[in-house]
Amino acid sequence: MKSSNVKWGSILRIAFLTLWMLFILFPLYWTVITSFKVPTDIYGQPTYIPGIDFTPTTSAWTYLFGEGKDRFLMGFMNSILIGLISSFFALVIGAMAAYGLARYKYKYGPMRNDDIAFTILSQRMMPPIVAAIALFIMFRFFGLLDTKLGMIIIYTWMNIPITVFLLKDYFAGISADLEHAAAIDGYSKFDQIRKIVLPLAKPGLASAFLLSFIFAWNEFLIALILTFQDAQTFPVFISGLNAQMEPKWSIISATGVVAILPPTLIAILMDKYIVSGLLKEQK
Amino acid sequence: MASIRLNQVVKKYDDNLIINRLTMECKEKEFLAILGPSGAGKTTILKMIAGIEEVTGGSVFFGERDYTRTSPQDRDLSMVFENYALYPHLSVRENISFPLKSPKKKGQFSASEIEKRVQEAAKMVGLDDKLERRTDQLSGGQRQRVSLARALVKKTSVILMDEPLAHLDAKLRVQMRGELKRIHQDLGATIIYVTHDYIEAMAMADRIAVTNNGELQQIGTPEEIYFQPRNEFVATIVGEPPMNIFQAELAARDGKVYGSWEGQTFEVPLPGSFSGKAVDIGIRPNNINLVPAGSDNSLAAIVDDVEPLGRQQIVTVQVGGRMLVVKSDRDRSITLGQTVHLQFDYAYLHLFDTVTKERMVL
C-alpha cells in the first residue's frame, strides 16, 4: 500500500517536472529553430521540426557573421566590456560596503547599519525609468552620453545595491572569531581579509558577480536612452533589428541565441564556487 | 615577564556595563581558571587580554609593559576559541602552521623548521596522522585538538583558552583535562582558562578566579575557593549538588548558641555575642550525616526524593516547608516519605551575613 503511494508520488513528480522543463525549454528551442527559418516558414503555419516541417537555412547566421558583422560585433563587445567592468566595480565597492556593514556598527545621526543598508537597497526600488530623464541631462552635461564609461558608471551604480545586499549576509555568516584567531596568529586586518575572509567568501563573490553581469548584460531601457551608436549595447542592437524595415525574426533569433552564451559561460566558470558554497551551507 | 595584570578594567557595550573595575593578576607560568556562569563576562575578560576587545577603561599589563592599546597581532600570545575558530578552507596542517607563516614572522622559520614544529604540536595532541585532512572531516574532539595544536605551535609564553572542552563528550573531556595539565607542565606557559565547569577549574588550575556579573568574587587556590568561599555566590558555584544555604535565628542558652530553623533547633559553634541575630548557614550536601533518631543536635526531615548514584546517593529532604539536599553513602533502607534525622558536620559549617551574603569571619 505504502510503496505504491511512493511510486505514484514519484511518477507524478517526474511527470510534473518534465512538463515544467518542456515549458521552460520551449521558448529557447523556438528561438533556435527560428534562427534557421526563412520568412515564409516564420509567418506561415507554425512549424516545429527542422527537416520535416521546414527546410533549415543558415542565411540569418551567415548575415550575422558576414554582412552584419561589424554592428553585431560592436554591440556584443560593448556589452561584454561594460558588463565585465561594471560588475567588477560593483563587486569591489559592494564587497567593501558589505564587509563594513557586517562587521562594524555605524552611527550617522539617526542612521544605524540597517538604515544604511536600506538606503543602499532603496536605490533599486524605484523603476529606473524614473531617473532616465535626469540621467540623460546629467550625462549630456558631463559628456557621457553614448560612451562606454557612462554605461559602466550607470551599471555599477545599479548593481551595488545587489552586491551589498547579497554579500552583507555572506560576510555576516563568516564567524568574526576566524578573524580574531588570525589576528592572534599575527595577521594584520588586511591580511586577515586576504587570507581568511576573501577565500571563504568566494561563493558569495561569484554569485554576486554573476548576478551583476547578467543584469548589466540584459539591461535595455537605460541603454536605449543613453546610447545611440558607439556605446550601443547588445540588447539595444537586437531591438534595433526589429525597427529597421520589417522585423527580421530569423536574425533576431540568431542574435538572441548568441546573447545567451556569455552569461552561461560565466555561470559555468563560476559553477564550482557557487556549488561548493551551497554544499557548505548544508553542513 | 609573562605575568598578566588587569588594573581597574572596565568594559561597556553601548551603555551596558559588562566588566566593572576588574583588578586581578595571573602570575608567570600559572594556570589560572576564570570560573563563572554564562553571562558573567568571562569570555570578554579573555578577549580583552587577547586584545580582540578594547577595554573601555583601565589597563592591561603583560609583565611591566602596558599592552592596553596594543593590537592582538603584537601581543605574542595564543588563544583557543570556544568554537575552535578553525580556518575551514585550510587543511589541518595549514591550520596548525598558519601562525608560523604570518607576515610578522616572515623569514623567521625555514620550511623544515615549520614542518618540525607542526609535527611536534600535532604529536602533542595526537593528530600527527590526520594532517592532510580537511577540518570539516574531523570530529568535534579532533577539531578541538587542532585548535589546541595551533595555539601550541608558536610556543608563546601566554596561552588563553575559552571553554576549550565545552563541546566534547564526557569521556574525552576527562582525558583532555589530564592532557592540558601535562601540556602546561611541559611548556611552562602561563595559561588563562575560562570555564563554567567548576570540576575543570578545580582539576587543572593553580588558582581560580570566580566572576559573576562582570565582577571578581574571589581569587584563590581551589582549596580556598572550596573550603573558604568568600560569599554565597562562590559557595554555590563549586560543588555538586550545590551547598545548602538557609537563614537561621540564633539564640543563646546555657552558654551555647542555638540556631532555630523551620521550628527545629540545633547547636551552632558561635560565640554568645551572636545571640538574637540571624545568620545564613551554608552546609555542603556531603557534610550532612544521616543519624539514628534521638541523636544530639539532629533535625527531623521527611524524604522527598532519592537519586541513587552507584556507591552514593543524593537525598532531597523536607524540613518544615524547605528543602535540603544530602549526599550520603547508598542506603537502600531510605524510602520516600520516611522520616530521617540529620546532623551537620560542624567543621564544614559556613556562615554568611544575611544582608551582604559575605562570609562571616569569626
Automatic annotation (TrEMBL), chain A:
Classification via SUPFAM superfamilies: MetI-like
CDD domains recorded: TM_PBP2
Protein's GO biological process: transmembrane transport
Cell compartment(s), UniProt: Cell membrane
Assigned protein family: Belongs to the binding-protein-dependent transport system permease family. MalFG subfamily.
Domain of life: Bacteria
Name of the protein in its database record: Sugar ABC transporter permease
Gene Ontology, cellular component aspect: plasma membrane
InterPro entries tied to this protein: BP-dep_ABC_trans_perm (IPR050901), MetI-like (IPR000515), MetI-like_sf (IPR035906)
Keywords: Cell membrane, Membrane, Sugar transport, Transmembrane, Transmembrane helix, Transport
Segments crossing the lipid bilayer: 12-30, 80-104, 125-143, 149-167, 204-229, 249-270
Keyword check for Nucleotide-binding: no
Organism whose genome encodes this protein: Paenibacillus abyssi
Topological category with respect to the lipid bilayer: Multi-pass membrane protein
Domain ABC transmembrane type-1: 76-270
Automatic annotation (TrEMBL), chain B:
PROSITE patterns linked: ABC_TRANSPORTER_1, ABC_TRANSPORTER_2
Residue span, ABC transporter domain: 4-238
Coiled-coil ranges from the UniProt annotation: none
Keywords, in A-Z order: ATP-binding, Nucleotide-binding, Transport
GO molecular function terms listed in the Swiss-Prot or TrEMBL record: ABC-type transporter activity; ATP binding; ATP hydrolysis activity
Domain of life: Bacteria
GO CC, alphabetical: ATP-binding cassette (ABC) transporter complex, substrate-binding subunit-containing
SUPFAM superfamilies xref list: MOP-like (SSF50331), P-loop containing nucleoside triphosphate hydrolases (SSF52540)
Oxidoreductase as UniProt keyword: no
One Pfam family it belongs to: ABC_tran
Protein name (database record): Sugar ABC transporter ATP-binding protein
